[in-house]
From TrEMBL, chains A, B:
Superkingdom as given in the UniProt entry: Eukaryota
UniProt keyword list: Cell membrane, Membrane, Transmembrane, Transmembrane helix
Protein name as catalogued: CASP-like protein
Gene source species: Populus deltoides (Eastern poplar)
Self-association state and partner proteins as the record states: Homodimer and heterodimers.
Protein localization: Cell membrane
Entry annotated with the keyword Cell inner membrane: no
InterPro entries in UniProt: CASP_dom
Region Disordered, residue ranges: 1-31
Lineage per the UniProt record: Eukaryota, Viridiplantae, Streptophyta, Embryophyta, Tracheophyta
A GO CC term attached to the entry: plasma membrane
Length: 194, 194
């Protein structure tokens, strides 16, 4: 069922770009190769795309983490007096570690060409991990929104602004990870039948 | 790529259950059939499983909808004075309609054996729909939790209890739909390569 050997996309086969100009007699020879190279390209693009999305998620959750952790201005303006903000901080830290680990693993796999996990396991870990962290991120960001809204009705200062910024970063991280989970789902769907 | 004709699981082929008692000479004849019937069984089970999960999600979101909509007890104890509860109600209604539509469609497909949508489209609709509604449900339920917690610190009455019940139903609906989205992802991964 699972194919453990990994065939990296070959860059030197570039026939599809010139296929349109070849005469009808030659089209027959390129017939079997074109779909395969197209598939390699698509998979390569997906790999880079999901790496970029995870990088974005790492950036956004790191920002949410830093902004919220430094959001202490004395008196009632301390983030750790509110459970919503503590929740957001906790999930931002967790998401930072998760996405950092994923980005490291995928960069290493792209550069060395070796797989740390078996291919199917890796796709499963990607899919479930992204999904779960995305659910946690959207939950924490939504729970912090009403409190901030209510505070801003009374006062609009650096504390509420920083909270709003951290919440936005949480939402951006969620969107990146949700898209990445969709790509992981697609990968899970195609990789075992090559 | 996509195979539009649908082969329903055949119940009359029941060789795997008695395969263990057949002599070695007969095992050769059952060799090609057993994996296929096993696959049919698994797909049938998954179909029923996802239908049951969607049914549960329908039940829970209907409960959340009814409990929250009837949560008016005068004075400050009206759900429509709080944006979190209005959000929860809106998403519960949306989720009720979505899951009701899905359950109707799948029941009709199971009973008539005809597909309303093309198979690949149907799997895509299932996967993306479940995913999006699950995100909305977890977001609305999490946003309503802190407000209810804070109210219950002051007073514990029928209003806060009903709110807590509606939130729990929202979370249960989320869990059902998240599991259903996983099954849809699995289906999306297997159905196009039969």
């Amino acid at each position: 069922m699972s194919n453990s050997e990994h065939t990296p996309p070959k860059k030197d086969v570039e026939s599809p770009a010139t296929d349109n100009t070849t005469p009808a007699a030659e089209t027959g020879t390129g017939f079997g190769v074109a779909p395969i190279t197209r598939r390699w390209r698509r998979e390569d693009m997906l790999k880079r795309g999901s790496l970029a999305l995870r990088g974005l998620a790492l950036l956004f959750s790191l920002l949410a983490f830093i902004i919220m952790a430094s959001n202490k201005h004395g008196d009632w303006k301390d983030f750790d007096k509110y459970e919503e903000y503590r929740y957001l901080l906790a999930i931002a830290i967790l998401s930072t570690f998760y996405t950092a680990g994923q980005v490291l693993r995928h960069v290493q796999e792209l550069s060395t060409g070796k797989q740390m996990l078996e291919k199917r396991t890796s796709a499963m870990v990607d899919f479930f991990g992204d999904q779960i962290v995305a659910y946690l991120l959207v939950s924490s960001a939504s729970s912090a929104v009403p409190l901030t809204n209510r505070m801003r009705e009374g006062a609009d200062n650096i504390f509420t602004d920083s909270s709003a910024a951290a919440i936005s970063m949480g939402f951006f991280a969620f969107i990146s990870l949700a898209l990445s989970a969709l790509i992981s789902g697609y990968k899970l769907s195609t990789q075992s039948y090559i």
